[in-house]
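User: tokens in, sequence out, please.
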């Protein structure tokens, strides 16, 4: 499904319930929205057999009439080689037409192609120019990306305060990565006064959306009592969520929790299992922990722990 589709409900809502032949007749009469909706039907296989070449054909007809959504989707077709030969320069041509009409999704995409040098010469300053246009229209991903540019000094002077301003805008739109970055800014006092309660607040918002690194950070906050009331059980809860997404340090911290009985009942088998899993990503850090746990175990427990580690690994999502 194309990125643009999320922006197009007001145009495409009629596709599912509309007779395809009626839609085709309107498209053949030159109605741009009908052409776009027919293209979308072919793109999604909605009411017709999926046919990317036919989709591209109708996107082009609508695009040539200036319909920004069609211009953008045609650009994606050329970028991906969907129904047309892959052609990055042609993709940029259509992205630009949509972006010059103020279509935010096309503006951020123009920024991305200039950053990567895909179909245009690499130019980070031009990327910033397009990201800013999309960010000023309220596109959360563009706001987050612009914040990163200011944080790193890429294409603009390094400015932590400006980074925080853009991350805040993005965070208020619910962008999880921006929320995590804003939390880190408050934790470090970078671009804003240090405020551990604000850090925990924003990490929680990102963690509740499933962002693994924020889940890990929130676990640390609860473990240390930083910005929240110290709570070992709550720390383990969030580390477990991060661990399930493959965060190596969360695996390590769960091993520590189980060997110490902090936030969970002491369990050597679980401790050794999590330490074994942590060793995959953090071998040097984990060796001492594994050795110390193993000294307290018998061979039967070690075998059980290794089996348990395999069971856990089968459920872990890669980061």
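Assistant: Sequence out:
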């Amino acid at each position: 499904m194309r990125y643009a589709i999320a922006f197009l409900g007001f145009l495409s809502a009629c596709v599912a319930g509309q007779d395809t032949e009626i839609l085709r007749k309107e498209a053949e009469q030159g109605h741009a929205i009908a052409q776009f909706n027919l293209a979308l039907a072919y793109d999604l296989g909605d009411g017709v057999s999926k046919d990317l070449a036919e989709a591209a054909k109708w996107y082009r007809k609508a695009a040539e009439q200036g319909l920004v959504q069609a211009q953008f989707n045609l650009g994606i077709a050329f970028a991906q080689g969907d129904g047309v030969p892959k052609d990055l320069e042609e993709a940029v041509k259509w992205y630009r037409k949509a972006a010059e009409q103020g279509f935010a999704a096309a503006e951020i995409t123009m920024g991305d192609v200039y950053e990567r040098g895909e179909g245009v010469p690499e130019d980070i300053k031009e990327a910033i120019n397009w990201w800013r246009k999309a960010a000023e229209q309220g596109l959360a991903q563009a706001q987050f990306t612009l914040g990163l540019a200011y944080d790193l000094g890429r294409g603009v002077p390094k400015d932590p305060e400006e980074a925080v301003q853009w991350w805040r805008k993005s965070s208020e739109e619910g962008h999880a990565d921006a929320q995590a970055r804003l939390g880190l800014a408050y934790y470090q006092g970078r671009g804003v006064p240090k405020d551990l309660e604000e850090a925990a607040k924003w990490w929680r918002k990102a963690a509740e959306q499933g962002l693994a690194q924020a889940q890990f950070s929130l676990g640390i906050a609860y473990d240390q009592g930083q910005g929240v009331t110290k709570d070992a059980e709550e720390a383990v809860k969030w580390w477990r969520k991060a661990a399930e997404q493959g965060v190596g340090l969360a695996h390590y911290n769960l091993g520590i929790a189980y060997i110490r009985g902090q936030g969970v009942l002491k369990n050597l088998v679980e401790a050794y299992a999590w330490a074994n899993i942590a060793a995959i990503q953090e071998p040097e850090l984990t060796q001492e922990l594994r050795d110390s746990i193993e000294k307290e175990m018998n061979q039967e427990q070690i075998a059980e722990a290794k089996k348990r580690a395999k069971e856990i690994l089968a459920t872990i999502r890669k980061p």
